[in-house]
Design brief:
mainly alpha
Length: 169
């Protein structure tokens, strides 16, 4: 299901395109259908584990015709299960993005400020904060935090992407 999104995942310069901004018409419907069938079968026949949960999360994203019509409640439930089966800071940060879509970015920012995913890599925490601030409409804070994420980035692609976000009007 991740491969189905490959044609839309990066811009011509190799910089990642966020899921919310991807042109879903470029996604491969045949691979999405195959992936959904496989995860449906796996969930019915095998104990639920981290791979099944991650595949189910990908399926929810892939089946949404647009970002705004994503089933955020289902995703939050899947991330809640993943927190139990395979806890970690990346899971917590991804869950906060979903929480931000479902309950609003202020709720997710409050959780981040309360120490959720405190052990996450600083660049990832800054990236999630910048995303949530942008979703909250606090453009100045989002740009400043994106600049901070660029400073903390561990590779050039991420650094360029966050620097570009920081310079947006």
């Amino acid at each position: 299901m991740t491969e189905a999104r490959a044609p839309a995942r990066t811009a011509a310069d190799g910089v990642p395109v966020p899921l919310a901004e991807q042109d879903r018409s470029l996604w491969r419907a045949d691979l999405i259908a195959e992936g959904v069938a496989l995860i449906t079968d796996a969930l019915a026949r095998h104990p639920i584990g981290p791979f099944q949960l991650r595949a189910a999360i990908a399926a929810v994203h892939d089946e949404a015709p647009e970002w705004a019509r994503t089933d955020w409640r289902q995703l939050l439930g899947l991330y809640d299960l993943l927190r139990v089966v395979d806890p970690g800071p990346v899971v917590e940060l991804a869950r906060l993005v979903v929480l931000g879509e479902l309950a609003g970015p202020s709720a997710a920012l409050a959780a981040l400020d309360d120490g959720v995913a405190a052990d996450a890599a600083p660049a990832r925490r800054a990236a999630v904060r910048a995303h949530l601030l942008a979703r909250a409409g606090d453009d100045a804070a989002a740009r400043a935090t994106a600049a901070h994420a660029a400073e903390l980035a561990t590779n050039d692609v991420e650094r360029r992407w966050w620097a570009a976000r920081a310079s947006k009007n």
